[in-house]
Amino acid sequence: MQLFEHAANLHMHTPYSDGEAYHAQIAQAALAAGLDLVCVTDHNVWVQGPERYYAEGERRVLLLVGEELHDAARQPQKNHLLVYNHSRELAPLAAQPQALIDAVRETGGLAFLAHPCDAAVPLIDYEAIDWVTWEVTGYTGLEIWNYMSDWARLLTTKAAALRYSLNPDLGVTGPAAETLARWDALTAAGQRVVGIGNSDAHATVYQKWGVSRCLFPYEFLFRQVNTHLLTREPLTGDAGQDRDRLMAALGAGHCFIGYDGIAPTRGFRFSASGDHGSLTMGDETTNRGGLTLQLTAPQPATLRLLRDGREVARKDGQSLTQVLPAGETGAFRAEAYLSYKGRLRGWIYSNPIYVRP
Ligand SMILES: [Zn+2]
Ligand SMILES: [Zn+2]
Predict the structure, then answer these.
(1) For the chain, is the Cβ count within 10 Å smaller at the N or the C terminus?
(2) The domain 268-357 belongs to what CATH superfamily?
(3) 4-261: CATH topology
(4) Is there a contact between 355 and 329 (Cβ–Cβ < 8 Å)?
(5) Looking at the CA of 81, which ligand is closest?
(6) N-to-C CA span, the chain
């Protein structure tokens, strides 16, 4: 099965909320970083107008506008929801997460719980903006890896804060275990939950301990954790048509999360063949006659296959094949780890292939 891959970053801010650069500058940073799609998600404001392709030479990037919605009056802040592909301002519903998610779906949009297990950072007086209303239903997925949120967990002491501010890659080892456990629990219970990975770029200038510096420019962050979308048809160059294809792939979970900061993740694939032919991440199948799961990485790595969150196979190499006997079911997802600067780092996290009874 031929698949077309599109590197995307789906969470960032402009001065319409609390970011530093406007859409055209963000598109330039995305072009420089080699992304194919960015989605701007300002807080509680749907900015219409800048959606289009931006090009430089041979390269082009599609810029779309979503939103990050939350109840601005709630203190401390909780329940940030990323919304894509919606067609009207939904901020007035932000105080009611279930009504908001229902409205997103009614307008044909996608809803993702942002940084769902965000943690407090006492060192900088930061309170956790995690998701607390877990009884909601109908959302598309979870932001499994939010680079800024997960990086902030490293700031446990002043020394660690300095070290990981200057060299974030020394500290970053993957998404929070708590978030992965949440994801696995939901999919093991039968729910479809699309996992995505993003930057949450703001390009904020930090002033702390006499240092004034933008630690995380957009371009730097667009080279770190991304969501790689897979489409069965190539993009056309028509912004509207391509938007539909990319959003359909996102909604279906045809994607993986790649930590491109340590090595390019382009080319990773996780597939299954069996009852329903050839399938990719996000697809569902039954298993009447046995199923072959195949995982291929762009370079040798430590590969893991998980079923409902539990490891069923592990191998060092560039590919891993696992044959499932007929009747075996579960939510199967793949991970790849890479040794980088002396530590094993989470590198790639696939979306599940759902094998149903
Ligand atoms: Zn947020
Ligand atoms: Zn954000």
Answers:
(1) C
(2) Immunoglobulins (2.60.40.10)
(3) TIM Barrel (3.20.20)
(4) yes
(5) 1
(6) 24
CA of 260 to the centre of ligand 2 (A): 20
16 CA → ligand 2 middle, Å? 12
pLDDT at 209: 67
Q: What is the pLDDT of residue 110?
A: 98
Name the residue ranges covered by the structural domains of the chain: 4-261, 268-357
Q: State the Cα–Cα distance between residues 274 and 324, nearest whole angstrom.
A: 10
Q: What is the DSSP letter of 125?
A: T
Element (H, E) at 4: strand 4-9
Please, are residues 127 and 142 in contact by the beta-carbon 8 Å criterion? Answer: no
Sign of the Cα pseudo-torsion (1, 330, 186, 115, in order): negative
Q: What is the DSSP letter of 117?
A: T
Q: How far is the CA of 305 from the centre of ligand 2 (A)?
A: 31
Rounded distance between C-alpha atoms, residue 123 and residue 232, angstroms: 47
Ligand 2 centroid to Cα of residue 317, in Å, is 36
CA distances to 104, 236, 282, 310 from 251, rounded to whole Å, are 12, 20, 9, 25
> What residues contact residue 103 under an 8 Å CB cut-off, 6+ apart?
90, 93
Instruction: Give the number of the ligand closest to the Cα of residue 9.
Output: 2
Buried b (16+ CB within 10 A) or exposed e, 103-136: bbeeeebbbbbbbbbbbebeeeeeebbbbeeeeb
Instruction: With 0.70 as the threshold, say if the pTM is over it.
Output: yes
- Identify whether the C-beta of residue 274 lies closer than 8 Å to the C-beta of residue 290: yes
Between CA 261 and CA 168, with CA 310 as vertex, the angle to 5 degrees is 20
